[in-house]
Amino acid sequence: MTLKMMTNCKRCSQRIQEDEAAYICVEELTYCQSCAFALEHACSACGGELVRRPRHAITAANKVANRSGWSAYGMLPF
Ligand SMILES: [Zn+2]
Ligand SMILES: [Zn+2]
């Protein structure tokens, strides 16, 4: 069983690749970049603000950790 992260834009149903920019609202509806711009970053369903979905949260966290000289695991209190 493979769990693939497949996201489709709520507006145009276009497949959003994992490394592509995607925008989500508070209800976690996903939009592609062109639709987010077309909607002026407002969700067509709830009217909420669309924010950029982080692409690789773990990688980004590690990058910050490396830059400041400690590992991400060093953040754990045990
Ligand atoms: Zn779209
Ligand atoms: Zn919404």
UniProtKB/TrEMBL annotation:
Q: Name one Pfam family in it.
A: DUF1272
Q: Which InterPro entries match?
A: DUF1272
Q: Which domain of life is it from?
A: Bacteria
Record protein name field: DUF1272 domain-containing protein
* Source organism of this protein record: Paenibacillus agilis
What phylogenetic lineage does the species belong to?
A: Bacteria, Bacillati, Bacillota, Bacilli, Bacillales
